[in-house]
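User: Hi! I'm a student and our assignment asks us to look at how structure tokens line up with a sequence. Could you show me two examples?

Assistant: Happy to help. In each example below, the sequence comes first and the structure tokens follow. Example one:
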Amino acid sequence: MVKDAAEQQKNYHENYVKQPRGMKVRDFVTRNHHLNAYYPYLLCMADTDGAPDDMPREDTKLTEMRLSQVVLRAQTQQVQDGWYAIHGSKIPTDVNQLRDELDPINVQVQRRLKQDQLNRKNQDSVHGSSSDKKNGTVRFMSGAREKTDTGRIPRKPKGNGNKGDEQKRHCNLCAQFGGNHSTHNTSVCRRWTKEGKQQAGWKQQRPNGNGKRDFAASLEKQEKEIHALKKLLKKKHKKRKRAYQYASDSSSDEESK
């Protein structure tokens, strides 16, 4: 345990503790009473060597007023505003009394939040058109994007949304001087100029046949290199074998002498 365990625990308890969402105020107050009972068992800086005699000890329980401030600050801003709207600048000094005052306010705030969420949901569902409802797909507006009840974003319709209204592409230059004229329009043609000359940045794509021949040639070259490497490894293995046999024969001759 660290020497300033009590100081660290009190700093966290008084400044960072928040009531969990969905927890009742009564249960939260009970939990704070349990935490407050642990302070006498923690180490504090007053017990360290060299600490001044008049140093206040922090291994004591929080007073009712400080514990009430902890409970009030742990509430959401809506609950705090509701309590101050009723009691004004009153300073809470009794935890149990504060619990009884916060409980109905918390219930009312939660009810209001649920009602606002339901109203927003109903308002968003109004954006769905009658035709979409007939087809079983109601659209909901979520920010700037439109989603269906299945979670998918519908595709943007081409043209006016009717079948056969898609705008056809046609390039007069490619139709006149050569090339695929159905992939783009004349205004964005990057191959031909109006005089029938190829543009400087145009590069003719290589046909698939050349690519296949290049791949076959590189594969054949790679097979030749692998075959030559195997021959080289065999030669090195034979040299090592001969050297080993020569060394073993010379050692046996020396032993016979």
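Example two works the same way, sequence first and then tokens:
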Amino acid sequence: MAFLWLMAMLGLQTAHGHGSLVIPQTRNSIDRLAPQWRGGYPLIPDFPGTGRWGLPNQSCGTIPPSCQEGCSCSNGTEPCDVGQSCFWFASGCTIGCDVCDGNGRRDGPPCRCRQCANATLNKPEWRTGNRAASPFSPEDWTRYNPWRAPGTAPIFDSCGMAGGGRNPGVESGEYNATAFAKQGDLGSALPPSPPGTVWKRGGLGLTGWYIRANHGGGYQFRLCPNGEELNEECFNKMPLEFAGPQVLRWNDGSTEEINGTFVTEGTFPPGSMWAMNPLPQTPTADFAPP
């Protein structure tokens, strides 16, 4: 399987699924400072719960290095220095519910509460799977997923929760405790990453993120000014717009420019821009790879 970075340009108004942001580096990558992950993934760590598929202490042995392990990825020439950044998320969150249940299960009822709301993104071309299903029908099994009404699902924290829930669970992402964080910690409580990226008010900013486990969906970028509390009230004031094409960077170093799917209908805050993940989890005739 080829792993990639996806790069996009953002139109900035002001400055301030598993995968994670690589450009700019985020506070969620703090475990890159721990010896087990420093410099990327030179060896496959012998830890539980990181979703690894290699043998303990097996060398990645690839050029570029991109192990089948945890949050590892490559920019085409070297490993991403991301620590456990792809394990900051929230499990068991469906639109209309007041809270997430923290359960990483993949079977059972699609609604995690008794009050799930109707999806607002229902056009087949805006869905990253099961496009042939009629909206709201029993066959529409993604209808309560967060990306079917972007920005409305509950969360644990605006910057994610280590391991996706307060307790480790099956088929989720158990977080390996380090000197910096442990399962159930809140991302907003992490120290900021060292400064280094500068975006000018009204200009364009380059972002890059990678997919580690493709569950479909999409994403939005928002900012919260430095010095303010990192919560949804703050981030919802400053959603960003996308500009230009998306660029795929494969792990052999090659790049591919594609036209992104950007949506402003049915999003929250109203009119904010959401980008669809351009890569199908399972390619089909109605959703082929770009």
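Here is something you could point out in your write-up. Residues 4 and 21 are 12 Å apart (CA to CA).
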